[in-house]
C-alpha cells in the first residue's frame, strides 16, 4: 500500500503533470505546437543568465507570500489578506529605506523589519477581531486589502512625495540589490532577497515543527475546542498566527521595495503577489519546504510564459490556465488517491 | 436634500446591482454547504461572455442585444460553475481551494480567448450597452419618482426583484427548505430522502448563473469592454456581502446596496457641498472601513450554515 507520506509527495507531482498535459491539449486545440510552446517557456525561464536571474527574482516574493498563507492555514485560518500585507510591507520598507540615513548594518535590517512589522500589523487586525469577536477572517482580510491599496496610494501621493506617482529610491545602505549579482546575470533585477526568503522558510519549519508555540498553533488549527480543553489559549494563538503570517507577507513587500524595484509606484490594482501566494501554499501542501518548491515552479511558469508569445505565438495566459488546473487537481487529490489505489489493486 | 438623494440613489443602485446578483449566487451555494470563493471568477466569466456575445451579435439583435447577452452569460456561468460542483461535491475537494482555482481559471481563460479572438489584451467597447431610462408611470410620481425611477438602469430593479424571488424560493418553498437543510445537517437531510449531492449541484449551478449574470451586468453597465482588469475584486465584495448579510438573500441585498451607496459617495462627493470638505481618501476607504466596523460592532458573530465547507461523505458519521 501507499503510505500517506508518499501520497503527499505523489499528488502534487501528478497534478503538475496533468496540468501541463491539459495545457498541451489546449495548445493543440488552438492550432499551436505544444512542444514549441513548452520549449519557449523553458527558454524564457532559463534560456540565458538574464532570464534565470529574473526567474529567481520572481520566485523570491512567492516563497514569502506562500509561507504567509501556509502558516495561517496551519493554524486553521485563511489569510486572503497577504495581498494587502505585501503592499503595506512594501511601503514601510521603502519609507524607512528612503527617508533616513544610517550605516548599512543598521539601515537594511531596519527597513526589512519595518516591512515585517507593517505586514504583521495588517494581520493583527483580522486576528484580534477573529479572536475577540469571532468575525470571519476572510471578509476582514479582503477589506484590509482594499484599505492597504488605497491608503498606500494616498500616502505616496500626499505624504512621501508631493503629488508624484512614485516614491524616491531607497538609499544604497538599505538596498538588497547587488552589482555583483547583476553582472553575473546580465543585469537582471535579481537581489539578495532570496536568502531572506529561504531563511524565512527554515524559520517557519523550525517554529511550527520544533517549538511549543508551533505545536499549539497546529493544534488550534486541527481542533479549536480540543485545544481549548487542553488549556491552550486559542485567542492568543489565532492573533499570533495572523501576525506572523502578515509578517511573512510584509517581507515579500520588502523584496519588491528594497530589491526588485528600489522604490514604490502607486498601484491602480493589486500586485497579485499575495493572491498567487494562496496557490503556492496550496501546491506546497502548506509545509515550509513544499512551499519553496511550489514557489519555484510558479516562478518558472510565470516568468517563462512571458517568452511564449514571442517564440511560439502562444498567449502567455495559457500558463494561468495551467496553474488553475494544477490547483484543481491538487484540490481533488481524493480522486487521484482513489485512482492510484485502484491501479495498485489491478496490478496485484 | 432632495437634490442630493436624486444624485446618490440612482448611482448607488447602479453600482450595487452586479454585487446584489452575485451575492445572491453566493447565498444559494453557501446555504447548501458549498463555500464559493469562486464568485470573482464566475463574474469574470459572465463579464467575458456578456461582452463577447454583445460584440458579436449586436447587428443581429439590435436593441435586445444586452438582454440576450446577460441571458447567455447566465447560461455559460452556470455551465462553468459545474467545475466547482464536480470538484467540491463529487471529488470532495477543499472548497476554498477549488474556488481559488475557479478564479484563476476564469481570468486565464477569459484573457487567453480575448487575445486569441481579438489579437490584443482587451476587447473593443460594446455598441449596445445598457442605457439608463425613466420608468414609465412610476417616474411621474412626485418626490419618489425623481429619486428612484428617473435615469435608472433597469438592471438595478432586476437585481432587487431577483433578491425577492431568491428569498421566496429559499424560505417559502419545499425546494428552499431542502437546500438549506443540506447545508445545515446533510446527514439528517439524507436520512429524510433528500439527495444531498444533487441539491448541492443545483445550488452551485444557480450560483454560477447568478454570478455570470452579475458579471455581465457589471460589464454592460459599468465597464463596456473586457480585459484583465474588468472585474477586480467585485466578486470578493459580493462574498463580503454574503457574510455581512448573514447568508440571507435580503440581508445580502442590503449589504450590497450599502456597498454600492458607500462607493457612490466617493464618486459624487465633488457635487455635494458637505462632502467636498472631506479628503477623498476617507471616502475611498469608507466602504471597507465601515464594513469592518459594522462586523466588529453591531453585526458581531455571523453564524455560517453549519455544514458550510464540509464535503458530505455518505455513510460516514
UniProtKB/TrEMBL annotation, chain A:
Superkingdom as given in the UniProt entry: Bacteria
Alphabetical GO CC annotations of the entry are:
plasma membrane
Q: Which residues cross the membrane?
A: 7-29, 102-125, 137-156, 190-208, 238-258, 278-301, 321-340
Question: Does the keyword section mention Repeat?
Answer: no
Q: What is its main location?
A: membrane
Q: Which GO terms describe its molecular function?
A: transmembrane transporter activity
List the Pfam families. Answer: BPD_transp_2
Q: How does it sit in the membrane?
A: Multi-pass membrane protein
What are the entry keywords? Answer: Cell membrane, Membrane, Transmembrane, Transmembrane helix
Q: Which InterPro entries match?
A: ABC_transp_permease (IPR001851)
Keyword Nucleotidyltransferase in record:
no
- Where is it located? Cell membrane
Q: What is this protein identified as?
A: ABC transporter permease
- Organism expressing this protein natively: Aquibacillus koreensis
UniProtKB/TrEMBL annotation, chain B:
- Which InterPro entries is this protein grouped with? ABC_transp_permease
- In terms of superkingdom, the source organism counts as Bacteria
According to the UniProt entry, where is the signal peptide?
none
**Spans traversing the lipid bilayer:** 6-29, 41-61, 67-89, 96-118, 152-171, 201-220, 281-300
- According to its record, what are the GO cellular component terms? plasma membrane
Q: Please give, as recorded in its UniProt entry, the membrane topology of this protein.
A: Multi-pass membrane protein
Would the keyword Hydrolase be found if you checked this record's keyword annotation? Answer: no
List locations, semicolon-separated. Answer: Cell membrane
Q: Major location, coarse class?
A: membrane
Its keywords, alphabetically, are: Cell membrane, Membrane, Transmembrane, Transmembrane helix
Q: Does the keyword Cell membrane apply?
A: yes
A Pfam family assignment: BPD_transp_2
User: What GO molecular function annotations does the UniProt record carry, in alphabetical order?
Assistant: transmembrane transporter activity
Q: What is this protein called?
A: ABC transporter permease
Q: What is the lineage of its organism?
A: Bacteria, Bacillati, Bacillota, Bacilli, Bacillales
Amino acid at each position: 500500500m501507499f503510505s500517506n507520506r508518499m501520497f503527499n509527495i505523489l499528488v502534487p507531482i501528478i497534478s503538475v503533470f496533468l496540468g501541463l498535459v491539459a495545457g498541451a491539449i489546449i495548445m493543440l486545440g488552438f492550432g499551436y505546437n505544444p512542444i514549441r510552446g513548452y520549449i519557449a517557456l523553458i527558454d524564457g525561464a532559463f534560456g540565458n543568465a538574464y532570464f534565470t536571474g529574473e526567474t529567481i527574482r520572481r520566485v523570491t516574493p512567492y516563497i514569502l507570500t506562500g509561507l504567509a498563507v501556509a502558516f495561517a492555514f496551519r493554524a486553521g485560518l485563511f489569510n486572503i489578506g497577504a495581498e494587502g500585507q505585501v503592499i503595506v510591507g512594501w511601503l514601510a520598507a521603502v519609507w524607512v529605506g528612503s527617508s533616513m540615513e544610517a550605516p548599512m548594518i543598521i539601515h537594511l535590517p531596519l527597513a526589512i523589519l519595518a516591512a515585517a512589522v507593517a505586514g504583521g500589523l495588517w494581520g493583527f487586525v483580522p486576528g484580534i477581531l477573529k479572536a475577540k469577536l469571532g468575525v470571519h477572517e476572510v471578509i476582514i482580510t479582503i477589506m484590509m486589502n482594499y484599505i492597504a491599496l488605497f491608503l498606500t496610494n494616498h500616502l505616496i501621493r500626499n505624504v512621501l512625495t508631493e503629488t508624484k506617482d512614485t516614491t524616491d529610491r531607497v538609499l544604497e545602505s538599505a538596498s538588497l540589490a547587488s552589482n555583483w549579482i547583476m553582472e553575473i546575470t546580465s543585469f537582471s533585477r535579481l537581489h539578495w532577497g532570496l536568502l531572506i526568503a529561504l531563511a524565512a522558510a527554515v524559520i517557519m519549519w523550525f517554529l511550527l515543527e520544533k517549538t511549543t508555540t508551533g505545536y499549539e498553533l497546529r493544534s488550534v488549527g486541527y481542533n479549536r475546542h480540543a485545544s481549548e480543553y487542553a488549556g491552550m489559549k486559542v485567542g492568543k494563538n489565532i492573533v499570533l498566527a495572523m501576525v506572523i503570517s502578515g509578517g511573512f507577507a510584509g517581507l515579500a513587500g520588502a523584496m519588491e521595495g528594497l530589491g526588485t524595484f528600489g522604490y514604490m509606484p502607486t498601484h491602480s490594482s493589486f500586485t497579485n503577489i499575495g493572491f498567487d501566494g494562496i496557490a503556492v501554499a496550496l501546491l506546497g501542501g502548506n509545509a515550509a519546504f513544499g512551499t519553496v518548491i511550489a514557489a519555484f515552479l510558479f516562478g518558472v511558469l510565470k516568468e517563462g510564459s512571458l517568452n511564449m508569445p514571442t517564440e511560439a505565438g502562444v498567449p502567455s495566459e495559457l500558463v494561468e490556465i495551467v496553474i488553475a488546473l494544477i490547483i484543481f487537481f491538487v484540490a481533488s487529490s481524493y480522486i487521484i488517491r482513489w485512482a492510484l489505489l485502484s491501479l495498485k489493486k489491478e496490478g496485484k | 436634500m432632495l437634490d442630493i438623494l436624486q444624485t446618490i440613489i440612482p448611482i448607488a443602485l447602479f453600482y450595487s446591482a452586479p454585487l446584489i446578483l452575485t451575492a445572491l449566487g453566493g447565498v444559494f451555494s453557501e446555504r447548501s454547504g458549498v463555500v464559493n470563493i469562486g464568485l470573482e471568477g464566475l463574474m469574470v466569466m459572465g463579464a467575458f461572455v456578456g461582452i463577447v456575445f454583445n460584440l458579436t451579435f449586436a447587428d443581429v439583435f439590435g436593441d435586445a442585444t444586452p438582454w440576450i447577452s446577460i441571458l447567455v452569460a447566465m447560461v455559460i456561468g452556470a455551465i462553468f460553475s459545474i467545475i466547482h460542483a464536480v470538484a467540491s461535491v463529487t471529488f470532495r475537494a477543499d472548497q476554498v481551494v477549488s474556488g481559488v482555482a475557479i478564479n484563476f481559471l476564469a481570468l486565464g481563460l477569459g484573457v487567453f480567448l480575448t487575445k486569441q479572438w481579438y489579437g490584443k489584451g482587451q476587447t473593443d467597447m460594446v455598441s449596445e450597452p445598457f442605457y439608463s431610462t425613466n420608468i414609465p408611470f412610476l417616474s411621474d410620481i412626485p418626490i419618489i419618482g425623481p429619486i428612484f425611477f428617473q435615469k435608472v438602469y433597469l438592471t438595478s430593479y432586476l437585481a432587487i426583484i431577483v433578491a425577492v424571488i431568491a428569498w421566496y424560493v429559499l424560505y417559502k418553498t419545499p425546494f428552499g427548505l431542502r437546500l438549506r437543510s443540506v447545508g445545515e445537517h446533510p446527514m439528517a437531510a439524507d436520512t429524510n430522502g433528500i439527495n444531498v449531492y444533487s441539491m448541492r449541484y443545483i445550488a452551485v449551478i444557480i450560483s454560477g448563473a447568478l454570478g455570470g449574470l452579475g458579471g455581465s451586468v457589471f460589464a454592460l453597465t459599468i465597464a463596456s469592454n473586457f480585459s484583465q482588469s474588468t472585474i477586480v475584486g467585485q466578486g470578493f465584495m459580493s462574498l463580503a456581502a454574503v457574510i455581512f448579510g448573514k447568508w440571507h438573500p435580503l440581508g445580502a441585498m442590503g449589504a450590497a446596496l450599502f456597498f454600492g451607496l458607500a462607493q457612490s459617495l466617493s464618486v459624487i462627493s465633488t457635487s455635494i457641498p458637505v462632502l467636498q470638505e472631506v479628503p477623498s481618501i476617507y471616502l475611498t476607504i469608507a466602504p471597507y472601513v465601515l464594513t469592518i466596523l459594522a462586523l466588529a460592532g453591531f453585526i458581531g458573530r455571523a453564524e455560517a450554515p453549519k455544514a458550510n465547507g464540509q464535503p458530505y461523505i455518505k455513510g460516514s458519521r
